[in-house]
Amino acid sequence: MTLPAAGGPPGAGTGPVPLSVAFSDRAGEETFDGSSVNMSVDPLANVLRTLDTIAAAESEVGDDLRAVVGTPAEVAAAPSPAAAADPTAPGVPTGAVDSDEPRTVVAPDTAAPESTGPGQARREAILDGASALFAERGYHGASLRDISRRVGISHPGMLHHFASKDALLGAVIDRLEAHAQGLLDSVESLQGSPATLLAALSGPWNPTQHSMALLATLSAEIVNPSHPGRYRVARLRLVHEHVLDEVLTGLAGKGMLVPGADPAFVARTLFSLLLSLTVREHSVRELQQNGSGDPTRDVRDFVHLCVID
């Protein structure tokens, strides 16, 4: 997927500009410690490069999605929203981290940590606390002192790991990007059947899960043009919509989409529904006493209106 080149492209030639370049807002940006952001290792740049190279599915897979992106229980239990992909599952593409080809994301419980020391553990605990408070109160509603109290760390100790709230938000969004990358890597498997799509919608896209609550809150906040995560969160939404579009396009190619349905429109509508149900689950649900309005059932009912099983 590419966009027409505008005047003065960032390199030789006048060909189309990849999305990873056209949508980037981090080129030349400096981190809180004064170092330049390297686009070759920017997680979302890698995601968008993957968008440029993703291919249509050719193989059928079983109904069980657990080997591809993890079980709902795994997603619910892990405070980190990183999605899992089994490198041994059929149809899951593999590749190096910095490759332009889709790569396999290792499950959080099996991935080799950068460090096993107390410093890394404390950093992850800070990210867990920040993610929870950002999901509950939004970026502007949660201060560094609020987060340090939630984690049980001193304010100076917090600043030792993250020099500013913007830097902390960036690390939290990195986790959401890892979640999106896992879904991108699973596109071919998700195209296998309607049952596989439904399994994902009740797993990594489940409106009751933490990653969706965090994304829904940040998505609402970025209507403010000055929000520091505005472009990265907006691009994340584009990635999720693109994944659903690719999955629905694959199903349409197998005659499994209702006649006349536009995969791109259904994808946008479906992801909007997921975000809306996420907000409802964390607000209206508390006012209901009869247990009605289950979000997973609502999503399933919507999919059955668009997909032929």
If you had to describe this structure to a student in words, what would you say it looks like?
This protein has 309 residues and is an all-alpha fold. Helix content is 52%, strand content 1%. Strands 1-2 form a two-stranded antiparallel sheet. The chain is elongated and about 60 Å long. The protein starts with a strand and ends with a helix.
Number of helices: 14
Rg, rounded, reads 20 Å
Computed structural class: mainly alpha
Q: How many strand elements?
A: 2
Helix content: 40-55%
Q: Helices and strands, in N-to-C order?
A: EEHHHHHHHHHHHHHH
Mass-distribution shape: elongated
Q: How far apart are the termini? A: 29 Å
Largest sheet: 2 strands, antiparallel
Structure described in brief:
The protein has helices spanning 19-22, 43-53, 66-69, 72-77, 118-137, 144-151, 155-161, 165-185, 187-190, 194-201, 210-221, 230-253, 263-281, 295-306, and strands at residues 2-3, 17-18. It is an all-alpha fold.
Task: Record the SSE blueprint.
Blueprint: E1 2-3, E2 17-18, H1 19-22, H2 43-53, H3 66-69, H4 72-77, H5 118-137, H6 144-151, H7 155-161, H8 165-185, H9 187-190, H10 194-201, H11 210-221, H12 230-253, H13 263-281, H14 295-306
Antiparallel strand pairs: 1-2
Helix pairs in contact: 2-8, 2-12, 5-6, 5-8, 5-11, 8-12, 11-12, 11-13, 12-13, 13-14
